[in-house]
Amino acid sequence: MEKKFFHHALRILKDVCIGCSHCMRVCPTEALRVFDGKAELIEDRCIDCGECFRVCPVHAIIIEQDDFSKIFDYKHRVALVPSVLMGQFPDEISDSEIYSVLQDVGFTWVYEVEHGASILQRTQLDYAKDEIANKPVISSFCPAIVRLIQVKFPSLVDNIMLLRPPLDISAIYCRKVLMDEGAKEEEIGIFYVTPCAAKIAAVKAPVGEGHSRINGVINMDFIYNRIYKGIKHKNKEKVVLPKQGHLNSVEIQWSLTNGEANHAKGRSLAIDEVHNVIEFLEKLESDEIAEIDFLELRACDESCAGGVLTTANRFLTVERLRNRAKRAGAKAMDEVSESSKVIADYEDYLKRHIRLSVEIKPRSMYKLDEDMAKAMRKMQRARKVMCYLPGIDCGLCGAPSCQALAEDIVQKKGSISQCVFVQKMMEKTKTLDTDHAFRIMERVWGQDKFIKNCKKKGADHESF
């Protein structure tokens, strides 16, 4: 059986999908097609960025998460939370209240993942100085970007920084601390509260290592509702404040745009939103851009504050975190917080485990065949097919672009007669009759698209 390229957190509910093609049009890697009136995912192209999830008008695309009750399989239950979770709540709700409610719902230790940023930042500086490192060094923080480079920009894979992100560093730290205190490894359950789908996929099938140190993931929108409900029903006078070291200002802002780039040496750039990243990487790959030392690339607009599983407006989240950073006080990285001093006691141990254990390999989505000679022939055929396609990328064929349809055709996953322009020419030359052309469109869009329906959006009796 062929091995899957990636684990995917995104799921399409076929019984809910209406085949509107919104998802197909926004996918940055052209990983979606429409067939029989339903969206179809091409798994080896998908990077779990969640753009399809954002635009689906009927919520037919969902993001998996582990059953919350799974945390109770463990004696020691660690909640790894990103700082953007704190930014989801208004300023009048304190961090301590959030920690307290998380303990009330079952966690025995609440730990912000950005605590690991201090050690990463120091290690990053040494990594960037390494003469062997390919420039620009590309941050490995965002798993959607790592996958994007693997499938769309394979020539840049060697530029990806082979250091673990703060999430993994914090997971390693928490497990080590608990084991040093006498806990058995099988008694420790580490759960990450994720703001996006890509980090779920990264936990379930990590790139650059054999397995993850994290036992499960909980979607941020789910835990947000649990926390907010808990705070509203809790007597503030009875809040038990868990022991929790505070992040410094650099750590608080690490997951925001410029969180890494502001502290990198040399010429560094921060680019957010996946289509902006693609535009930049295309220029970088073609040598239009040079002399850059470090790139911070994030798939979401405003970085993790704009994750698809966040609840609050991303701009308000950024404002809250900036204010939180100001309250923490502007500190240089050597003026570490109390919690950073604690994690610093394990710095030597963490630095020994901070490098990825497995080389990141390219997985080009443009590979038409494993056999190079066959792939070249298919590429030539695709170019010939493009001669007959209109090149307007209308999407009526069920593919996101004419180029995508041409590739589908040479892979025997599509037919040139799916193109309505080709259909019209074939009808004109009597090589395709009208009934056959109609059946082709039904195979792509489903029979219901050709039936009057006043319940669709914008119609007389709109129902969704």
TrEMBL record:
4Fe-4S domain mapped to chain residues: 377-438
4Fe-4S ferredoxin-type domain: residues covered: 8-34, 37-66
Any single Pfam family the record assigns to this protein: Fe_hyd_lg_C
Keywords: 4Fe-4S, Iron, Iron-sulfur, Metal-binding
GO molecular function annotation: 4 iron, 4 sulfur cluster binding; metal ion binding
Protein name, entry field: Iron only hydrogenase large subunit, C-terminal domain
Source organism of the structure: Williamwhitmania taraxaci
